[in-house]
Design brief:
Oligomer: single chain
Shape: globular
Strand order of the largest sheet: 1-2-3-4-5-6-7-14
Number of helices: 11
Largest sheet: 8 strands, parallel, barrel
Helix content: 25-40%
Distance between the termini: 24 Å
Structural class: alpha/beta
Strand content: 15-25%
Number of domains: 2
Length: 332
């Protein structure tokens, strides 16, 4: 299985490659990708350097063009596809059909991966994207059970990639509207949940911190309580006289114990989430998964998830806890 790791900047790309990633995925400094945070992503020159660094070590670079342009800005996404081809990216990761169509028509040699934002969860959906746009791979949404993944591996016309570790999204990816209700800015079109320009932190005399998104109170943290980046889905709200994580408690997806089952199902690639995370996260998580995959390849019959691997991953979990998420569901 290919290990696909995040690169929010050039040092992170180099760290992922050095730690054993088979491929890295990156974005440009604009709204064509779904991690359009200030100070993140690549200039043209940095991406050129990153591709050269990866290719010199026989690794791949995928460019995420996974947001949904409106018709007035579609040419910007087309230009990003052209740039990916010109710079030598090994594939683009796209969701919008018009973006995939442009790539298929003008850069047939550039591999096209269907993004998780494409929300393809059935064999017919994958077959349509393959027949219409010639996708070479599809990234499955994080709402599927492991049984559903296994069934898709049996029937899909293309190799499949699944998320193995990182932030867990409970929404229908590519269709989330929560941030847009509060800010008026769609995460699907503008590249980020909770745009930084709408986020306001407040310090209180007792040491607590509050965070608001466009003046709407999202959460309040005790002095010693870790605080992640605020999103609507992971906030705490007063419901029925109780304050709690009404939608989603901050937690990280960790599928390490499922590695043998995913391999036996025929999953082609394991994806690590986290282009917004630092270089230390990228290096540590990549190194851990590289070791786990290599040991499974060497001796699959006796493979077990080692405690030191789980401890290493737990240190980087969002909310300091991990889950199998929808993978643990037992229904089909």
């Amino acid at each position: 299985m290919e290990l696909v790791c995040p690169a929010g900047n050039l040092p992170a790309l180099q760290a992922a490659v050095d730690a054993g990633a088979d491929a890295v995925y990156a974005g440009l400094r604009d709204q064509t990708n779904a991690r359009a945070f200030p100070g993140l992503n690549f200039s043209d020159d940095e991406l050129r350097q990153g591709i050269a660094y990866a290719h010199a070590r026989q690794r791949k670079v995928y460019l995420a063009l996974n947001t949904y342009p409106d018709s007035a800005r579609l040419t910007q996404w087309h230009a990003a596809v052209d740039k990916a081809a010109a710079l030598g990216c090994d594939a683009i990761i796209a969701a919008e059909m018009a973006v995939l169509d442009h790539a298929a028509r003008h850069h047939s040699q550039l591999a096209r991966h269907l993004s998780v934002q494409g929300s393809a969860t059935t064999a017919p959906a994958l077959r349509y994207m393959y027949e219409r746009f010639g996708i070479a791979r599809a990234v499955l949404p994080r709402v599927l059970s492991v049984q559903q993944v296994e069934r898709l591996c049996e029937n899909a016309p293309v190799p499949l990639e699944v998320f193995a570790f990182g932030s867990l999204c409970i929404m229908v990816e590519g269709r989330c509207q929560l941030s847009s209700y509060v800010t008026g800015v769609s995460p699907n079109r503008h590249g980020v949940c909770s745009p930084a320009s709408f986020v306001r932190w407040e310090e209180h005399p007792d040491g607590r911190r509050s965070v608001r998104l466009n003046q709407v109170l999202i959460d309040r943290f005790d002095p010693s309580e870790p605080a992640g980046y605020p999103t609507v889905c992971k906030g705490r709200y007063a419901v029925g006289g109780e304050v709690f994580h009404a939608l989603e408690e901050p937690t990280s997806l960790n599928t390490l114990e499922l590695l043998p089952r995913l391999a036996q199902a025929g999953v082609a690639a394991l994806k690590i989430e986290g282009r917004q995370r630092g270089t230390a996260y990228v290096a540590s998580v990549t190194r851990t998964w590289r070791d786990a995959i290599d040991r499974y390849r060497t001796d699959p019959a006796h493979w077990q998830a080692r405690p030191d691997w789980q401890r290493a991953l737990a240190r980087h979990a969002e909310g300091h806890q991990t889950t199998l998420g929808p993978y643990h569901r037992h229904w089909h």
